[in-house]
Write a structure and sequence with these properties.
T2SS/T4SS_dom, 44% helix, 4 strands, alpha+beta, T4SS_GSP_E_ATPase, Rossmann fold
């Protein structure tokens, strides 16, 4: 099911229900990281529903891909991605409301196909697709690109 933008409580609730009943659901959110995507989904719900939503999300989430479009060296644009896969560790962090710890799990989860935006930015700089300045503008840890 392609939902499009998940912009309100009703849409997010329907998407979660569909995912929980076994449907593959794709949706978009305007956030800058995988962790912020999780926070945004949960924060839309009233306080009394948040534990249930965390549980639903932790059981149904397959992946979050966050992207930024950057100017390429020589013109054009290229995408930089942060990829978070719904591993048991990530699912537990969502369930336990420890979203702030996700970044380190993504950082060390390369064997599962995960990468932080900073890791992909480093790769794009190494391949001379973007400049260090362009990478620094989007990086979480700006010191990497000094």
């Amino acid at each position: 099911i392609l939902v499009g933008e998940l912009r309100d409580l009703e849409t997010i609730r329907l998407a979660l229900t569909a995912a929980e009943t076994g449907h593959l659901v794709f949706g978009t959110l305007h956030t800058s990281s995988a962790a912020k995507t999780i926070d945004r989904i949960i924060d839309v719900f009233p306080a009394g529903e948040k534990p249930m939503v965390r549980s639903m999300l932790s059981e149904s989430l397959r992946a979050v891909i966050s992207q930024a479009l950057l100017k390429k060296v020589g013109g054009g644009r290229t995408a930089a991605w942060e990829i978070m896969v719904g591993t048991p560790a990530i699912r537990n962090l969502i369930r336990e409301d420890k979203v702030a710890q996700m970044y380190s799990s993504i950082q060390t989860g390369q064997q599962y196909g995960m990468q932080t935006l900073d890791q992909h930015l480093q790769d794009l700089v190494k391949r001379s697709l973007i400049t260090r300045n362009q990478a620094r503008e989007y990086a979480k840890d700006k010191r990497i690109f000094e």
